Amino acid sequence: MSIKSIASAAAPAAIGPYSPAIEAAGFVFVSGQLGIDPVNGAPESGVQVQTERAIRNIKSILAAAGLGLSDVVKTTVFLTNMTDFAVVNEVYAAHFKAPYPARSTFQVAELPKGGLVEIEAIAVKR
After folding, report:
1. Mind giving me the DSSP string for the chain?
2. Counting Cβ atoms within 10 Å, is residue 75 exposed (0-12), middle (13-18) or buried (19+)?
3. How far apart are CA 124 and CA 73, in angstroms?
4. 42 with 34: CB under 8 angstroms?
5. What is the pLDDT of residues 14-67, one digit of tens each?
6. At what angle are helices 85-95 and 47-64 packed, to 10 degrees?
7. CA distances (Å), 17 to each of 103, 120, 125, in order?
8. Which of its termini does the chain have fewer beta carbons within 10 Å around, N or C?
9. Domains and CATH numbers, the chain
């Protein structure tokens, strides 16, 4: 089995010893994306804008693998405050269409760089 690292200049570089995404066995596993501006490396302001940016970062990484959001089969959303759930859902629904990917959502104590939301994704090559 071939394993390939995937990155995009239009998404932030990894902030640790990991790949932005890995392609293996027909799947693309996208590491958690924060709402970080890829140009200046700083988090965007507010959970709505951070969610929008995190999804755009995922979209850019998927595009580097020849995929799009319609190829995503599973996401995991991490929130620092579960009261942001409705706002995140609103942004999420504007990008993902039915049939929606399977999804889990967790509240966490803290995210890197002061992030309010982080989203990871698994996509399948068809």
Report:
1. --EEEE--TTSPPPSSSS-SEEEETTEEEEEEEESB-TTT-PBPSSHHHHHHHHHHHHHHHHHHTT--GGGEEEEEEEES-GGGHHHHHHHHHHH--SSPPEEEEEE-S--GGG-SEEEEEEEE--
2. buried
3. 7
4. no
5. 989 999 999 999 999 999 999 999 999 888 899 999 999 999 999 999 999 999
6. 30
7. 25, 16, 25
8. N
9. 3-124 (3.30.1330.40)
Number of residues in the chain: 126
Whose tokens are 């620092």? That residue is 80
- Provide the token pair at 97: 């269409």
- For residue 104, give both structure tokens: 């889990």
What does the angle CA 45 – CA 60 – CA 111 come to, to the nearest 5 degrees?
40
The encoded tokens of residue 98 equal 């039915």
